[in-house]
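Homework help thread (please don't just give me the answer)

Our assignment gives two proteins as sequence + structure token strings and asks us to describe the second one. The first is just a warm-up. Here they are:
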Amino acid sequence: MKNKMAEAAAQGDQHFSHFGPQNNLFKELEALFKGYGETGRGKIRRYPCTMKRRRNPSSRSPGTFTDWEEMPGDTDLLFYEGLHGAVVTPDVNVARHADLTIGVVPIINLECDSKLHRDRETRGYSTEAGRR
């Protein structure tokens, strides 16, 4: 990802991110929510660092996902813990397939983080100078 971000920056894209639509499978996520609502089934993959927290070890390294697999059957609730569970873009609308969405706000002020990053990367400030 670091290399992709550097390539994007070299091409003038200062907003490239692993959170953005170009680096996520939003259509597949929408298909999971839609399919689960209709049939109670769907294909999922897991993120190893999340699995580790739950003491479910994976042979995959952090920053990668497991292979796609069918969800277990006979469930009544899809609990999705992730960054894009209610994402709406011009191409997808995951939120319309959920009965309930809950957003969690991080403790760290993201606006302040963005300012610090901008000040360090584009203005050449030190971290300490950017905090003033």
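The one we have to describe:
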Amino acid sequence: MSHTRKAWPLLRPDGTVVTQIVRTVRLPENATPETPSMARGALKTTVKGFLTSYSIRVTDDYGYDEDTVHGVDWTSTYSSNPGNAEGITVPLLILGMTGHWEYAAAEEIHDHAKSADKTLAYVEGATHGYSTCTKCEKTPGQFGNTMKTTYDYVDGWLSKKGRF
């Protein structure tokens, strides 16, 4: 899962926006298994709790490749963001952060949302919490202040068309 399926706006640290297939900049993580740690490798739950909160149904063609996960019934659990997006009909802004694993979910969420006014953009070098992934940078400062990049874009999006 290294890039998006389609070209999307990519927010650069210098304030420019380019539309392209967006590639992740994240680095491999968790080379050491978390299994020995109860706090990180296990869930304290029941079978029913697990099935209702953490599991999701897959079909016979389940799999993944460089740009998607396929064969997933996104509506089979209440905790699925793509499944939940199917109920969104109001203006929607979805931001993917290229410095973390969740960036791949943004395109799936966008594709499932029913809103006629929906925007998807990616913040280059940002982590899940919007901060700069400094360990992802090839040169110090490469991704700038991703928090500012993120909030400047949100401000512009909210101001457009009188959304706010």
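TA reply:
I won't write it for you, but here's a hint about the kind of observation we're looking for: Residues 146-159 form the longest helix (14 residues).
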